[in-house]
Amino acid sequence: MRRWLALAAVVFLATIGWLAVRDIRRGYWGAHGAHVVRFTLHSRLARRGLREVLVTPHGGGEGRPLLVFLHGRSAPPDSNLSDAFLKGLRAHFEQYLRFYADACAG
Question: Each residue of 50-72: pLDDT tens digit?
Answer without folding.
Answer: 888 888 777 666 777 677 777 77
